[in-house]
Each structure stands twice: as structure tokens, then as C-alpha cells.
Amino acid sequence: MNARLEVTKTYKMYVNGAFPRSESGRSLPVESVDGKHIGHICHASRKDLRDAVGAARGAVNGWKARAAYNRGQILYRMAEMLEGKGEEFAQAIKQSTGDDLRSARKEVIASVDRLISFAGWADKFAQVLGCNNSVAGPYYNFTVPEGTGVCVVVAPDEPCLLGMISLMAPALCGGCTVICVGSEAHPIPTSILGEVCQTSDVPKGVINLLTGQRAELLTWIAEHRGIDAIHAANLEHDEARQLRLGAQENVKRVRVRTIDDDAWFETEECESPWWIEPFVEMKTIWHPSSA
Amino acid sequence: MADGEQATGNMTGLSGSSASDVSTGRETSAEKPRKGRPRFELRFGDAWDYAPAPERAPCEIADTYGHFINGKFTKPTETFSTINPANEEKLAKIAQGSTRDVNKAVKAAREALPKWSRLSGKERGKYLFRIARRIQERARELAILETKDGGKPIKESRDVDIPLVAQHFFYNAGWADKLKYAFAGAEPGPVGVCGQIIPWNFPLLMAAWKIAPALACGNTVVLKPAETTPLTALRLAEIFEEIELPPGVVNIVTGAGETGAALANHKDLDKLAFTGSTEIGKVLAGIAAQRGIPITLELGGKSPNIIFDDASVDQAVEGIISGIYFNQGHVCCAGSRLFVQEGVVEEVIEKLKIRLASLRVGDPLDKNTDVGAINSKMQLEKIKDYLKIGTKEGAELHKVNGKPLPSKGYYCSPSFFTGVQQSHRIAQEEIFGPVLAIQTFRTPEEAISRANNTPYGLAAGIWTDKGSKIFEIATRLEAGVVWCNTYNKFDAASPFGGFKESGFGREGGMQGLRPYVSL
Asked: B122, B176 in Cβ contact below 8 A?
């Protein structure tokens, strides 16, 4: 018998530069659109979120301190790796969503291009969002944006890859470290994305990817004091309210977008520096000017 | 300049457009100590006493003030009194805003919105230019009114507050027809009807910070001034009438906390903006979250002022003074935590004692007064509590300013604590008074980590003569405004606002427009 048994992949999360399962030992079955069992993904717990926050917090200063040029190259490297694994992503999207391969590939390509766009923004957005201020006195005064800190991305169910990349890239570009809760309906691309990060010189802790149930994690995300910002899209009204209510505790910066399927592919909309702006803090520096 | 005439009348260096740092001709006899004198000596006009020099220009105050709604002053029904904290005398009766008043004001703002937002930017700007000019023309009157109602020294209201108010309107006026250049690639439109709630520490300046950018971007406004300081906002409303600002574009409803709550909870607001305590800010953030509307918050602070051993100590001491004793310490960005590198601690504290002793505390209307009246009895009690708490926690209180305080009114001698631990409440909580907590450090790393060890992130000060150190420290401090070799400088073109729990959104500068546009 020549038939070879396929070696299937164990889907894991990506936290602090490693591929752990959920500390809770929980998993969730994933089915294809026609009801076929695809595999299991990790069912992230509150403790997994805490671990991810710890990793992201530990990585913030290093990521912010890197040259913007370097951050840009790392995002570009992610695009290169994503392109290389494009077919694996396209198949995963197709299998889970039931999209045809052509549209799944289209989503992968758009995701690669989105990363390229923000790779390019990394050393330029400060020139667009920041400025020198002409104050009425003998002072040199300027305003520079810097990353807010630890940002949680709550990805939409669809498009599962493009949505996640579109929400993560501006925060990373701006100097934030990211914890992404991937698409609940189609979690496998989230799991594969860890392999892209791991081969792209992304410093450990800068990107952390969790899979599981969004509603369960939202409560903990909203209240966690180690999280500085939240970038989410297409949440239910109650989910958005819950996030904002919890966020008041430590004055988190929360941006919840409503974006329909086609709009994710619009570069004018989704690749604007105003997508970076909610995840940077403006710092204004004064110094007397005199001889 | 003779020794005895040094440094009078410019304790902050904040003289509106002519702001300049303290760098001129201060003589120190540190190298040649004279007999019977301390080792470090700075002399600040202690050769003779100053005669009283009160500002006497007339400034009319009506008996009673109503709200300003839809371009008209309402006839008040229920009122409360606003008093002069310098002598506890009643100044006027002020309308207590009810839910009905708030409803009327929001309705007026809503009705004014379509026309105002469709007006060309150039025309909107022209109204704001007019306001700026009228403020300049009536500057003296506004300064006196501000000082009477709030207790701040006339020197500050005249040279800092009111010039900045005019500048904020003038600066934002010029943006009104240029918004598309401020938001690269986007199409900025107005947000809508804005509810704005402001504090008592810079009453008219806070009104200008809120109203000017909102109007420039095509929004309409309902503003609630602080309970203890409503008079200058109402005078501003008179100016709006004079310059023929269309009715309803700005509405002012006076009152206490309940009025603010009624405004914040109004269902027809498109945006909330608040400056004040972090505690109230979080409550308002909750209201905005329930309603799903945007909010900007400019909240409290416990800002670090860091002096390195290579700083120019004389200038740094001036920076400490303007950092914490400016406006009686009623400043959200006050440099209330002083970190001094160990090598210069002794020198800094000795010089600080001499400088602090020279501050003139008393009648805010006196042109020589450095530290005026505490804004309210409640605030005075709060500050006194912290003085007790600090002592009880084991820190050492230095009350080196022995100037006698007026018998009537709310006054607090400026002071500082040494021996302060990070765990002390006086090192963690915002006191909002002329009280400084001094700590020491050895290395830049230690300074940075301790400066950042707070939920706040509004401002910070750095004192060193080394440029590369300034950039490294400024980059790593978690603060929205970093003053290097200076402190407490403000300008309409310079964005102001905090990191972390000091809030979000900026006021002033190009970035100050962002909260008032939708992209």
C-alpha cells in the first residue's frame, strides 16, 4: 500500500515568541463549512490573556525604542513570510469559510499588501501626525507621536485574515505591542500567523495571538489594567459598550470600527495614517532657545 | 541691576508672548559666602518691604447672572452665590442650572448646528478672530474678574491667563478655513453638539481651550463652567453677544455638579469634553461609553520634575517655583513630585528655602503677589489634610515662608516635604495645592523608573545642561508635555494633554483640532 497518511498540523497559540497550548488545557473543535472536522484550536483562558499581557508589557519599551526603520523592516519581513505561506492561508480560509479559492487568495494578497503599506508608514507617520509648533516665545517646541503601549486587537469574524492584519498593523507600526484575539468563526489563520511572526524577526512578546471565544475574553480585556488600548471591528453593540465601560477603569484608548466586507479591501480607507493615530500618544517637548 | 531688585514680578517667567526663562543677571554669592549668611545665597528683594500695590481699575459685576442660552441671558430662578476667596465676600448670585435649562441649551446648540457647520471656514474664522480681538480689548477687566472670582494673583491672570485666552481664539480662528491641511488625506467634518465641562483653576482659559477649537471645526457648544468660578465665562458670553456670534452656537449653563451631570447625560449630545479630576473623568467616560459617543479627557496629574546634578541649579530652583507654586499649585500639570540627584540635594534645598521664603502670599489683586488665595474653603481643607497626612506618614514638612496670611479669605503658605517615600500618599495623590514632595535619586535609570511609577502621565520637567540626556530622558518619560530646562509654559500653538490616566485628546496646536472633527 503506497497511500501516505498526511501529517496534520496542531494549531496552537502564539505568546511571548513561543507556541503554547492554553494553560487551561481547553480546546475547541473547528469544522469546515460543510461540517467536516478540521482540527482543534486552543480555547484561551483569562490566564492566557494575562500571560499575553505580561509578554506584551515586557516587550513595549524595546519595541518603542527600535528605530522606526527597523520596525518597518520587520513588518515588511512579515509580508514576505505571509506571501510565502500564501497558499496555506488561502486553503485554510477556503476550508473554513467556504469561499472559493480565488477570493481566499484575494484576501491573502490584500493582507500582504496591507502589511507593506504599514511597513512603509513606520518611519513616516511621525512626519505626518507630528509637527514643530511656532510658539510665541523663545522656545523650541515640537510634538512627536509615540506608541500608546499594549494594544489588544479584537479581530472581526470575517475577513478573518485581512481583518486581523488591518487592525494589528497600524498599532504595531505606531510602536504598540499587540495581543490579538483572532476570528472566532475562522480561527485557523490566526494560529498559522504565529509561524509568520516567528520567522520575521518580530521580537518575542511584540505580537501575541490568542484563539477562543471572544465574548468570554472581552470582559477580562476591558478590565485589565495592563492594557492601554483596544482596536476592534464589527462588534455587537453590547460588546462594544462592555469594552468601553470596562476601559474607563484605567482610561484605555478604545477604537471600535464598523467596516463592511468590501471596505476592508479599500486601501484609501484602511491604509490611512489616521488608523495609526488612535494608538499613538502625542508628546510635546519644550526647550528654551537662547545663547 | 542692584542685588536687592532681582527677580521681582516674574516668578513664572510666563509673560504671555514675551515668555523668557530666568537667565538674566541673577547674582549668587555661593562662591564667596559672607559672614552670617548661608552657604548658598540668592537674594530676592529682601532689602525692603513692598508697599501694597492693588489693581484698582473698576470692574462691574452685576447682582445676578442667568444662563446664556440661544444668544440671550435667561432670567434666573434658583441661584447660588459666587464668592471672592480672597476675602470671602459675595460677588454675585448665579443661576443654578436645572435639567430644563440644560435641555434648552442643548436644543439651541442643535438648532444652530446646521447653519454654523455649513458656514464657510473663512467666515467661521472671522467670528473667532473678532472674539480674540475683543478679549484683548477687554483684557484688563477680564483679568480683574478672574482674580476676584478665583483667587489667582493678578500678575498671573493679567500676564498668563487672559493673553493665552485671546491667543487660543486667534490661533484656532486661523485653522477654520484650513482644516483639510491639518488632516492629511482625510475629509474633516464637524462632530456636532459638544457638551463641555471645565474646572476652576484656569476658568476662562479652559473655556477658550474648549470653545475655540470646537467652533473652528464647525461644532456648536454647551459649556458648563465650574461652580466657584462662573463669572469670566459669563463675561465671555457678553462678548459673544457684542460680536454678534449667531445665537445657539455657544450656550453657557452655570451650576454645580448636578448641572454637569444633567449635561453629560443629555441624550442629544454628539461629544463630551471634560477637564478636571480623574475620578469624575472616569464617571463621564462611563456615561460616554453607555451612549457610544466620543469623549476627550484632560485629567489629573502628579508630574515629576527631575533635577540632574549637571543642571544649572539657580534656574532649576526657579523651575521648581513655577512648577509647583504657580497658581497656588492649582495646576493639573504642576511639578508636584521633585526628584533631585543626590549630589545637588543639599544645594537645591537650601536655595529653594531662600527662594520660597521670598514669595509674597496674600491679596491676589496686589500686583506684587506671587501666591494668591486658595480657590475655595473645600480645597483649602483638602490641602490642609494632605499636610497632616504627609507629616503623619513620616515626611518632614518645611514651612519656610513665614509671611503673615490675611485674616479673612482662604490662604495656604507654600511649603514642601522632604524624606518622602514612593509609598506616601503625598507622593502618589494629586494635592492641587502649593505643596511639593521632594525625593532623591542616584542614576538616570532610577529617575526614569520612579518618575513613570504613577498611573498619571500629564507632564514632566527635566533639568540638565546636557542635550543628549535631555532627548533620552524626554523620550522615555511617560508624559504628554515635557518641559526641558523650563516648566509650566503654555501656548495656543502647543498641544497639551496626557498619557495614561491623565486622559486622552490634546488641546492646543494642530493636534488639538482632532477631538472636534470626524474623519
From this structure: yes
- Cβ of residue B445 closer than 8 Å to a chain A Cβ: no
| pLDDT, tens only, A13-42 | 999 999 999 999 999 999 998 899 989 999
In a domain, residue B327? The reply is yes
For chain B, which residues score pLDDT lower than 50? Answer: 1-31, 33
My answer on whether B174 and B312 are in the same domain is no
> How far is the C-alpha of B247 from the C-alpha of B73, rounded, in Å?
11
pLDDT score for B12 = 41
Alpha carbon distance B132, B153 (integer Å): 23
**Cell match 509568520: residue?**
A196
Query: In terms of domains, do B207 and B329 share one?
Result: no
A1 — pLDDT class (breaks 50, 70, 90): low
The pTM of the full predicted model, rounded to 2 decimals, is 0.93
Number of domains present in the structure of chain A: 1
What is residue B46's predicted lDDT score, i.e. its pLDDT? 64
- Put simply, whether A139 touches B (Cβ < 8 Å) is yes
What is the predicted pLDDT for the residue at B37? 56
Please tell me the distance in Å from B122's CA to the nearest CA on chain A.
Answer: 22
What is the structure's pLDDT at B1?
Answer: 34
Distance of residue B403 Cα from the nearest chain A Cα, in angstroms:
32
Q: What is the reported pLDDT for B42?
A: 62
Q: What is the CATH number of the domain that holds A251?
A: 3.40.605.10
A24, part of any domain: no
Q: Determine contact: A147 vs chain B, CB below 8 A.
A: no
Q: Are residues B275 and B334 in the same domain?
A: no
Q: Does A18 reside within a domain?
A: no
User: B481 contacts in A (CB within 8 Å)?
Assistant: 283-286
**Distance between B88 CA and the closest CA of chain A, angstroms:** 37
Q: What is the CA radius of gyration of chain A?
A: 20
**pLDDT score at A53:** 98
Range of the domain at B342: 301-484
Half-sphere exposure of B375 toward its Cβ, with a 13 Å CA cutoff? 23
> In this complex, do A133 and B491 lie within 8 Å of one another by their Cβ atoms?
yes
What is the ipTM score, two decimals?
0.94
Cell numbers for B458: 500629564
What are the beta bridge partners of residue B72? B69
Residues B233 and B84 both lie in one domain: yes
Cβ of B486 under 8 Å from any chain A Cβ?
Answer: yes
CB of B509 within 8 Å of a chain A CB? The answer is yes
Backbone φ and ψ for A254, nearest 5 degrees, come out as: -120, 130
Q: Is residue B52 part of a domain?
A: no
For an interface test with B, give the residue of A148, A237, A282, A290 to mutate (most B CBs within 10 A): A282
Q: What is the mean pLDDT of chain A?
A: 96
Q: Return the pLDDT at B56.
A: 85
B-chain CB neighbours of A129 within 8 Å are 511
Retrieve residue A42's grid coordinates. Answer: 486552543
For position B238, which CATH number holds? Answer: 3.40.605.10
Report pLDDT digits (tens) over B260-304.
Answer: 999 999 999 999 999 999 989 999 999 999 998 999 999 999 999
Q: Is B298 a catalytic residue?
A: yes
- The CA distance from A55 to A58, in Å, is 5
Instruction: Verify that B179 and B319 share a domain, yes or no.
Output: no
In this predicted structure, what is the pLDDT of residue B93? Answer: 98
How many CB atoms are closer than 10 A to CB B443? 10
Q: Which domain holds residue A88?
A: 39-288
Residues of A in contact with B292 (CB under 8 A): 237, 240-241, 244
B183, B483, B497 member nearest A286 (Cβ): B483
The CA-CA-CA angle for residues B46, B51, B54, to 5°, reads 125
Asked if residue B14 lies in contact with residue B489, where contact means CB atoms within 8 angstroms, the answer is yes
> In terms of CA atoms, which chain A residue is nearest residue B297?
A251
